[in-house]
Amino acid sequence: MSLRLFHRLDTAKTQYYHFQAVIVAGMGLFTDAYHLFSITPITRLLGHIYYESHGNQVPPVIESAMLAVALLGAAIGQLIFGRLGDLVGRRRLYGLALMLMMAGSIGCGFSVGTTKGCILASLGFFRFLLGVGIGGDYPLSATIMSEYANKRMRGRFMAAVFSMQVFGILASSAVTMAVCKIFGRIYHPSPKDPIPKEADIAWRLILMLGVIPAVMTFYWRMKMPETARYTALVEKNVLQATQDMERVLDMSPGQIPEGHFLQPSQSSYPLFSKQFFLCHGRNLLACSATWFLLDIVFYSNALLQSKIYKKYLPDEDPSKAVTALEAAFEVARLQAIVASCCMIPGCIAAVFLIDRVGRLPIQAVGFFFMAIVYLSLGVPYVKYWNDHTDPLFMFLYGLTFTFAYCGPNTTTFILPAELFPARFRTTCHGIAGAAGKAGAIIGVVGLVMATQGDYKKGATPTQGDDQKEASRTRVALIILSGICLVGMAVTSMFTKETKGTSLEENE
After folding, report:
1. pLDDT tens per residue, range 230-258
2. Which domain holds residue 15?
3. What is the CATH number for 475?
């Protein structure tokens, strides 16, 4: 089978369709982040609506469960859609993943029940469904972008797709702030009546608005042809692959130079065979382990925000009368600040460096600096940082997100889509991603168990309780530092750097 088509794809000039593919593929990551991160301000609304007797705070166990159920769905979606993506094609499943996300978004808003428990259980079910769609989108988006891109810019394009996650976080924060402001002006809640019935509508509306980006990209996903590499290498139809690429890229058969021939033995062995593990087992283990370790840290850090922001949130101060909508607004505002000041610079640096420096150096250095920052936060935490008001503390805390995005949070998404043969590509990406989500579940559940206070429900925490919680947070930060160092060490397990190489060379 001739590789001349792949040579042309690898050397194609950057053109409009590449940028269109970034947006279309990135919208899945955008929707993913919108829902995973909007749950933080929404739990503030839920706390004021359903947990007034608990100090207007959703119990940490419930909050972590809301995150964990979506992550469990994502892990299952990555495994199922990852395998099916290699069996029936990337494009055929691309719309299905988006439809599951749309159904989950709308279902979350229509969570119903006669009691608080029924409503939260319904919300959990639809978040699980949403998670399956989100998980399915990960291996498909990463693989489609890698198979469309030229080898010179492939890393940048894939990093740009992943950076849409940050814009999803910003969108969720902006929508939450807008909804809270609009509802606050229309219904005029007051400290004497801080929980209007409209607050129950507000959180549902915020979640349902997450369906808009998915709907906007559904048409374009259905118009995308199957990737040339899947059609040629898996379906063995080179002519169809060439015709598909001629429709969307500026290329013609006359422009395609002759290339080498693909040896059948390169892709004839079955998945999980002895030869598969000899050729790809080490890379699969490295991809899965680094994603697993990274997500323990990243999602633990997402939950730590509720403790870090504590001094900046007015509803944490019993002397201040704050409405439910105002409380959610402040959480969303702080989340937007962190995304704008810390995450976006990391994404920009990743896009700039990924094809210059390489994936593995960025991943190792990112893990290393994350470890240093977590250690700097953890060791003096009880003595110096516990009140979280020091600007240096907030600066260092923000750096954890910067180094994550200009490091392993981006590269763990990219590497599995580059290292494996076309017939195993989405499967292996799904396995690595599912390992990451398993780490995320361990992170969010383990952090709650490690840092929650001993005081009883409804009781006011004493100074001794605060000291115990601070000590637990200190230990958690030091553990996160150690996990980052392990991640840096595991990065050395990868067999090769993928910068500037074709996907066929990486096989």
Report:
1. 988 888 888 888 888 887 776 555 544 44
2. 4-249+270-453+464-499
3. 1.20.1250.20
